[in-house]
Amino acid sequence: MSQHSCYFRAPCARRPLSIAVAAALGWLCASQALAQQTEASLKETTVTGSVSVIEEAREVSTLGSLTMDKPMAGSVLTREDLDIIKSASALTELMSRVPGVSKSRNMRISAGGKNYTDNRVDGLRVSPTGTYSFVDQTNAADIDRIEFINGPGSVLQSSYAIGGTINVITRDPPKKRAFSVSQEVGSSDFYRTDLSGGDTLDNGFGYVFDANVKRDNAWRERAGDNLDAFSIKFGGKPDAASSLYVRLEYLNDETYYPGQLTQAQFDADWQQAQPGVYGKGTSRYVTPSIHYQRAVGEKGEFVFAASRRVVDTTTFGNTATYTSFSNTIGVSQQTVTSSQAMYRQEFDVMKSRLDVGVEYLESVSDSTQYANTFSIAQALLGNFAQGALNTKSNNSESTETSTTPFVNYEFSPTDKLRLHAGVRLDSIDYAVDDRSTSNKDNAKTFTKAVPKLGATYEFNANNLMWVSYAEGFLAPSVSTLLSSGTVGNLKNYVPASDLLPEEMKTYEIGFRGYLPASKLRYDVTVYKTDIVNMVLQRDCYASESCYRINENVGQMTAKGIETGLSASATPWLDLGVSHTLASANYGYYKSATYDYSGKSNNFTPKHHLNVRATFKPAPGWKAELEANYESEYYLDAANSKAVSQPAIYNLRASYTDPGKRWSAWLHLLNLANTKYATRMSGSADAWTYNDGYTPLTVRAGVQYNF
């Protein structure tokens, strides 16, 4: 049974905390003499499935999944990893140990306004735009593992996912009855309560469910995140040849946004909220899904899956980085319908496998903005009531429809060599019904065939190398198309419908495997991505009747080395290393007023290093010390200001009784109480610190399984 988070009341004052830390570390040192003498098992941190025999990994793998035999890069956070981390924020607690994660929204390529990352749950797209925060939009206690596929992946990953794909895999019903309850508490009045259970019935059908509540006032003033989540999955085998599962998930998230601070404000009091602003957002997610799988003959298989996510969001004031207060209320609804139909056939000739299928996505977004009936002074105290409709902006309905047939063929011309060849044919349709006085109606279609090729070569049963080549394209989003172009009067808007898609080519070579003599598991990827027709934004010239305009004026080359290592150094010590060496430079980025050609893309540290040491001093006891470091990076395309993030240390200790009936733990995050910010933004003369930073944080908990 997966273990879920729980906490008891932890001391929050500085002196009791220091005593608790000293006691925990002292106990760890004293207990090492009781360390287990059996060999520690290696955690699965780089691939899914078995890695002792490559052929075994191939037999259990499916198209698009991350396994040892696939010619694509990535890593996996397993249920064991998630139980150790017990994340309250994916961006700051999970992503730091994933090679290839950038500083801004996307994997590999840091670009906040771009959509270079694909978001999926159980293989289905749940959003037309990609972002790290979507992991927190899935019930965390119901996640079995998270696959991070770096780069374009296979034909089952989206053509725009040149940065990568984040695929959240939810739990299946357990083989036998299992239930657990947990309670956790921590600094800043944090608590999280969880109830989880599941069983497989006599008829072969089973169920698994999880319900949890999180309340987090956060350390910064006027900040916080409150989440209610519930999910249930039911299914089994209707007959000997098929399986059917249905799942329903509900989340309700209430988030407060403390804003950003100037350098002077940050130096004086980095706990304060931005003066003169207020921000709050509430979002409700309802997601039903279905997965059906059926064997066809001895070597065929048909799979159908579908989901429908409805997100209702209300925003009060400002909910992003900002410099002035917006006294408005925004109401929106997004419905994302996603489906896949796929058939797989295996052949004896050259151990070949053919996958054919089609993927479909429809996203309908409706947004409306209203004035607040309360004055600004009252709104800054949290008073909001819906007033008059704002007819000038943010009132529209947009539809994105994507229909993508795909085919992939893999075969082994020799025992050690396996080749993969696939192609996606993407057709993306945009339509916008703008109800504001700007009248920015628009429609656009983008179509492109995208090949993805790869090969693996096995040195022996445990080690291989792989190479891949993939193309891709990113169609301009609805907001990109509408937020640029020449604006005459409000009733004569000419959208930038002539923008071309960004096109890219990615080359990769990788080495992965296991060295039994040194008990070392390794995964190393070298990549290069070239992007042309990059859409970049500039201010309009005096002769143009507009404010800013988007144009296809950029070229970029991103390259790097991504490394994941894990080893059992001794029976009582496991080590893990994640390292990213990255660069992203503009080959061309020029307008009439500036030339950034050759400059580094902002928010791209050259080095990102995460090191973990897991101590097991006695049966049931475990402690992980984690260090995370990022080297210097630029904050703007002009490369006028560079910053770096200091090393941050986290300590996580736990105990599980021999019968695995109950467990308890203590987490100390930002152990050295380092003052830092995970993100800055602004311009050359006015840099600001955004949210996403906290001092020393304590969390502790207990769980009981029954």
List the helices and strands and how they pair.
Blueprint: H1 14-31, H2 54-60, E1 73-77, H3 79-85, H4 90-94, E2 117-121, E3 124-125, E4 143-150, E5 164-170, E6 178-186, E7 190-200, E8 206-216, E9 224-239, E10 242-256, E11 261-262, H5 263-268, E12 279-296, E13 300-317, E14 328-346, E15 353-372, H6 376-379, E16 386-389, E17 396-411, E18 417-434, E19 442-460, E20 463-474, H7 478-482, E21 485-487, E22 493-495, E23 502-515, E24 520-539, E25 548-570, E26 573-589, E27 607-615, E28 621-634, E29 642-656, E30 662-669, E31 680-683, E32 686-689, E33 697-705
Parallel strand pairs: 2-5
Antiparallel strand pairs: 1-4, 2-3, 4-5, 6-7, 6-33, 7-8, 8-9, 9-10, 10-12, 11-32, 12-13, 13-14, 14-15, 15-16, 15-17, 17-18, 18-19, 19-20, 20-23, 21-22, 23-24, 24-25, 25-26, 26-27, 27-28, 28-29, 29-30, 30-33, 31-32
Description:
With 706 residues, the chain is mostly beta strands. It is 7% helix and 54% strand. The strands form four sheets. The chain has a 22-stranded antiparallel β-barrel. It has a five-stranded mixed beta sheet with strand order 1-4-5-2-3. Strand 28 (621-634) and strand 29 form a beta hairpin. The radius of gyration is 26 Å and the shape is globular. The relative contact order is 0.14. The model is unreliable at 1-53 and 485-494 (pLDDT under 50).
